[in-house]
Amino acid sequence: MTQQHFDVVIAGGAAIGSAAAYFLTADAGFSGSVAVIEADASYQFCATALSAASIRHQFSTPENIRMSLFGTQFLRRFSQNMAVDGDCPDPAFHEGGYLFLASASGLQTLHNNHQLQSSLGADIALLNPAQLQTRYPWLNTSDLAGGALGLSGEGWLDAYGMMQGMRRKAIAQGASYLHNKVTGLDHTAGHVTAVRLADGERIHCGALINAAGTGATALAATVDIDLPVHARKRSVFYVQCPQPLPGCPMVIDPSGAYFRPEGQGFIMGISPPADQDPDATDFDVQHALFDEVLWPTLAARVPAFEALRCGRSWAGHYDMNLFDQNLILGLHPAMDNLYFANGLSGHGMQQAPAIGRALSELIITGKFQTLDLSRLGWERILHHQPMIEHNIV
Ligand SMILES: Cc1cc2nc3c(=O)[nH]c(=O)nc-3n(C[C@H](O)[C@H](O)[C@H](O)COP(=O)(O)OP(=O)(O)OC[C@H]3O[C@@H](n4cnc5c(N)ncnc54)[C@H](O)[C@@H]3O)c2cc1C
Q: In the chain, is it the N or the C terminus that has fewer CB atoms within a 10 Å radius of its CB?
């Protein structure tokens, strides 16, 4: 029979839930019990497993930049720190860089972001069109005014491997993973007392973390909290190109389309127009978006893509915060032990280590210790003060 009380229960055991479980159980100042309740033991539909798995420091808000800088540090030490019984997991972190391209209208924003990013320690170089052309002869720069290239620290990784590494380490440090679905919360006087599970069991808890990704909104609704997070479908297309693109980083076109190397080919994607981006209910790949928008856009940027061949593609769901496309982190004022870490809006893989650490600090000490993320709390939502992140891909 399942243990009936845990000091911390985490609903959702993918990147965010496992990062929180890892940091809590790694903290010498914490001796409590931790249970992670995960509805899908296969993890096949979670955003973590379907992610484009890239990390960048090129954001427009200090918090997002700092969280990703920590993500890089964490990845560089991942193998040693996640070792279990001498087995060192490899997150396949490749520091291939991000290249944000700007047309004339976007150049000032690129420069402003660059100034902020550099002041916080990000290793980003500004390139003019001639420098872009020399460095990337395969790139059409005719309509570009510049670009910003991450020289170190940015790149891509194995998202599933990273999640499993943290999960395995958390278990080795004492966390319990339970295969079940949290269907409701018992609460009294603004305090969660227990989670109700799909099999009818109940687990009492000292604190609860909502790390349920796109499932977080339904969970919040069981205690009458309106979480502005909705599932948005994003397709990732795998293509092969007959011509190599030497030195290709993760490239972000001014249109918002992206591509980067993956194995013997490339992955690429683009968000659909806002008026064609409903709540996602299935995982069907958006082939029309590829044919009508993505391919023509990227073939104009990289002429070699005219001849590309589309291979195995997939679609996943962003947990999109429709309020301001940023993380919602920490306690809701109506509940004194219910912590949120939701609305990651497509950049949560790289931020998972910083978010897991922040949750652990909040639960153990009552406040942020290493990185002040208070601006990402519920107050901005409740007071209608969006914290806009301009660099959403
Ligand atoms: C196509 C795509 C591309 C992306 N590219 C990037 C990228 O390049 N870089 C980046 O940083 N991020 C990227 N992201 C975003 C990133 O993958 C997510 O932000 C991150 O994985 C979110 O992790 P999570 O643990 O919050 O959510 P998820 O990975 O979705 O996990 C939530 C888990 O909660 C479980 N769950 C849900 N409800 C319940 C319940 N009631 N009870 C118990 N368990 C429950 C689910 O089964 C699931 O396993 C991308 C996402 C997608 C979809």
A: N
Nearest CA to ligand 1 atom 21: 48
Distance from the alpha carbon of residue 111 to the mean position of ligand 1, in angstroms = 31
Q: Which atom of ligand 1 is nearest to the CA of 12?
A: 34
State both tokens at 223.
Answer: 């205690």
Closest residue by CA, ligand 1 atom 23: 15
Which residue's alpha carbon is nearest to atom 14 within ligand 1? 346
CA angle 26, 32, 34 (to 5 degrees): 75
Q: Select from 239, 387, 256 the least CA-distant residue to 325.
A: 387
Q: Find the angle CA(337)-CA(343)-CA(344) to the nearest 5 degrees.
A: 115
Residues within a 6 A CB radius of ligand 1: 11-12, 14-17, 37-40, 43, 46-48, 50-54, 181-182, 211-215, 219, 234, 236, 316-318, 344, 346-350
Residue type, 278: P
The domains of the chain are located at 5-82+158-228+323-382, 98-154+232-314
Q: Phi and psi of 46, rounded to 5°?
A: -70, 155
Spatial separation of the C-alpha atoms in residues 48 and 176, rounded to whole Å = 20
- Binned at pLDDT 50, 70 and 90, residue 116 comes out as very high
Q: How far is the CA of 65 from the centre of ligand 1 (A)?
A: 20
Topology given in CATH for the domain delimited by 5-82+158-228+323-382: FAD/NAD(P)-binding domain (3.50.50)
Pocket test for ligand 1, best of 22, 44, 50, 51 (most atoms within 8 A of CB): 51
Q: How far is the CA of 107 from the centre of ligand 1 (A)?
A: 32
- Write out pLDDT tens, residues 158-204: 999 999 999 999 999 999 999 999 999 999 999 999 999 999 999 99
The residues near 180 (Cβ < 8 Å, ≥ 6 apart) are 37, 38, 39, 197, 198, 199, 201
Tell me how far apart the alpha carbons of residues 170 and 22 are, in angstroms, rounded to a whole number: 4
Q: State mean pLDDT over 322-330.
A: 96
Domain 98-154+232-314: assigned CATH number = 3.30.9.10
CA–CA dist 171, 26 (Å, integer) = 11
For residues 327 and 103, what is the distance between their CA atoms, to the nearest angstrom? 28
